[in-house]
Amino acid sequence: MPLRLIFMGTPDFSVPTLLELVAHGHEIAAVYTRAPKPGGRRGLQLQPTPVEEAARKLGVPVLTPKTLKSQEALDEFKAFGADAAVVVAYGMILPQVILDAPKLGCYNLHASLLPRWRGAAPINRAIMAGDAESGVMVMKMDVGLDTGDVAMAERLAITDNMTALDLHDRLARLGADLMVRAMAALDRGGLQLKKQSEDGVTYAAKIDKAEARIDWSKPAHAVLRHIHGLSPFPGAWAELENARVKILRCELAKGSGEPGAVLDEQLTIACGEGAIRILELQREGKGRMQAADFLRGATVKPPMRLS
């Protein structure tokens, strides 16, 4: 029998899981997401979240409460009579009374190999730290920050050509499949839970824009992972001829020189050790472009520098 579920999520990452749960016959009693925010060209239109847009197309009731801590919010949540809640990047803390409301519990899809990278930005931090792999995990939620018992996991290698967006999209698809399998096991009464290890705990702090400036004194591999971990948002940046340029994709290259020095006319830039070659970038106020297109309209050659 399909489960009656409450789905709680907000960004693009959450949408594949919602769609897969529906496709596999589960009944979505309601969708909880964050309230629309001003956006659009002039910043005046209220923009619904990607999850709200998907839920509206499915004809599912959508709720955007400012808090879940009131008695009114609890009563409303309980009234849906859900067997379980599925939470994917919702962005709001669930109090214990909400966690206890569904008879089978609340289950979170998290984009890391817990206990590594608990917190807000696991995808970015895994790439920036030079991790060899990432993954997704389904855990039964408790009141801690991503500390719940783990039910199921899938691993995924991180390659040096992966940006945060690349990894985000692959984990979103992988996670949707994993959550569907977890809910099937929960329905059968066969979902096994295992406590997280206390060893290897790290926290994925929210990305601060102050981190985005590139430090060319670091080794080339660290620079590459920094760039890819922040691509496309907020975008790692450097200054070229007193203008800010975001670097969105690069590769390791041969060469050496003073950190930040332009080594040739193909956008090879020296790092503290080794060099990178810029493949995709974005000038301030412009759209993203391939390096070859950028070089057709700009001359970048030695002895120029990026700072």
What key phrases describe this protein's structure?
307 residues; alpha/beta; 7-stranded mixed sheet; 5-stranded antiparallel sheet; 27% strand
Textual characterization of the structure:
- This protein has 307 residues and is α/β, with parallel strands linked by helices.
- The chain is built from eight helices and 16 strands.
- Strands 5-2-1-6-7-9-10 form a seven-stranded mixed beta sheet. Strands 12, 13, 14, 15 and 16 form a five-stranded antiparallel beta sheet that branches. It has a two-stranded antiparallel sheet with strand order 3-4.
- A hairpin with a 4-residue loop joins strand 15 (275-283) and strand 16 (288-290).
- Helix 1 (15-23) packs parallel to helix 6 (164-188) and helix 5 (122-128) packs antiparallel against helix 7 (220-229).
- The N and C termini lie far apart (60 Å).
- 40% of the residues are buried.
- The model has no long low-confidence stretch (mean pLDDT 96).
**Rg over alpha carbons:** 22 Å
Give the helices and strands as they follow along the chain: EHEEEHEHEHEEHEEHEHEEEEEH
Tally of individual helices: 8
What is the total tally of β strands? 16
- Percent in helix: 25-40%
Which spans have pLDDT < 50 for at least 5 consecutive residues?
Answer: none
Q: The biggest beta sheet, please?
A: 7 strands, mixed
Through-space gap between termini: 60 Å
Strand order, largest beta sheet:
5-2-1-6-7-9-10
Strand fraction: 25-35%
Structural class: alpha/beta
